[in-house]
Specification:
By secondary structure, the chain is of the alpha/beta class. It has two domains: 156 residues, NAD(P)-binding Rossmann-like Domain (Rossmann fold); 199 residues, Dihydrodipicolinate Reductase, domain 2. The chain is 41% helix and 23% strand. Helix 7 packs parallel to helix 9 and helix 8 runs antiparallel to helix 11. About 2% of the residues have low confidence. It holds the Pfam family Sacchrp_dh_NADP.
């Protein structure tokens, strides 16, 4: 059946993606646990719904209905990805998610051979973080390779401008934040990571702080954070040394002192689960987007000692995520994918970002 299922259809991203798909003439199916919330989310646009009270029920529905594309917004992806991908490959469905944690993104990419055998496309990291930073790295590296240069070092910085809706953080996001890096090589579960000589090695959480000035003239700072975009940047560039940073990570001197102690406490299972429950219940007030643009930033150092710096300007981070996920899903629905497992720009190139309104800016010339 030619249709797109949206798992987590009552959430902010799920609703936003479904509405954008409908605006383009597609007919998404909202999938969620609560029938009442699904009816409410679907009512305004007349979306179809599928009630799945458990993840097992959702995967059983995928195997039976065999949708063309499944979009998963349900985290933590370290827990939900494998059963949903298994169902998609069995059903002949393509798969898209918006994971951005260092455990989940490589786990999806490791399913490439499975996807090739099934003739299906799997895409991870279709949200703002991975797609924005990976795209600017891919853009810079395409120019460098055309000039015969090889990337040896890359630093990416994610600078989202996010408008917050009032409400609790929620179980899925809290779980992702509290789980650390289960199964990730190169350091402890609650340590940061960087690539050094092509291997994952420890890095200080919130360390490596760089001050930045965006093309709009905004002054921000970004500290190291072990996100899925680290893997995406390394794959896009082939550089042996790669760091990823975010303006959202606490990187004050106090935070750098507190984070190691907090990480030690989170290694204790009962404390981690208690912290996750408390964090999930924290209610945040509404907040407008702090800046006009969200940004992906990268600096690439080449084998001849020169550097290239670029920015990718996009809109508000949540709306950009909705637009990116929708664009990827639509392309897969049209048959524009290819068998295997990919991050967004690895599959569709740096032009994917411009298709959703992104603009690249080069800072200076290679030097």
């Amino acid at each position: 059946m030619t249709e797109i299922w949206v798992l987590g259809g009552t959430g902010r991203v799920g609703r936003g993606v479904a509405d954008r798909l409908a605006d383009g003439g597609d007919s998404p199916v909202l999938v969620g646990r609560d029938a009442g919330r699904l009816r409410e989310a679907a009512a305004a646009r007349g979306h179809r719904t599928y009630v799945a009270p458990t993840l097992d029920a959702a995967t059983a529905g995928i195997r039976e209905a065999r949708p063309t594309v499944v979009v998963s917004t349900v985290g933590p992806f370290t827990r939900t990805m494998t059963p949903v991908v298994d169902a998609c490959l069995a059903a002949g469905s393509d798969y898209v998610d918006l994971a951005n944690d260092l455990a989940a993104v490589p786990a999806l990419l490791a399913r490439g051979e499975d996807a090739v055998r099934a003739g299906r496309t799997l895409v991870t990291g279709a949200g703002f973080g991975v797609a924005a930073t990976e795209s600017v790295v891919a853009w810079l590296c395409a120019e460098g390779r055309d000039a015969g240069r090889r990337a040896v070092r890359v630093r990416t910085d994610m600078v989202p401008s996010l408008a917050l809706q009032s409400g609790p953080l929620g179980e899925a996001l809290a779980g992702t934040l509290m789980e650390g890096l289960p199964g990730v090589s190169g350091g402890g579960r609650f340590q940061g990571r960087r690539f050094a000589d092509g291997r994952l090695t420890p890095a200080p959480l919130g360390g490596g702080v760089h001050p930045l000035v965006t093309p709009d003239g905004d002054h921000v700072s970004a500290g190291l954070m072990p996100l899925g975009e680290l893997v995406a940047a390394q794959r896009a560039s082939g550089a042996p040394d790669v760091e990823s940073a975010s303006s959202e990570v606490p990187h004050s001197q106090l935070a750098r002192l507190v984070l190691p102690a907090a990480s030690t406490l989170l290694a204790v299972g009962p404390l981690r689960r208690f912290a996750a429950r408390r964090l999930a219940a924290v209610t945040f007030p509404a907040r407008p987007a702090p800046r006009t643009h969200s940004w992906g930033h990268a600096v690439v150092t080449w084998d001849d000692g020169t550097t290239s710096e670029g920015w990718l300007g996009l809109g508000e981070a949540q709306e950009t995520t909705d637009a990116l996920v929708t664009e990827v899903a639509r392309r897969l629905l049209r048959g524009d994918g290819r068998p295997g497992a990919f991050t967004p720009a690895a599959l569709f190139g740096a032009g994917l970002a411009t298709a959703v309104g992104g603009t690249y800016t080069r800072i200076g010339a290679a030097a």
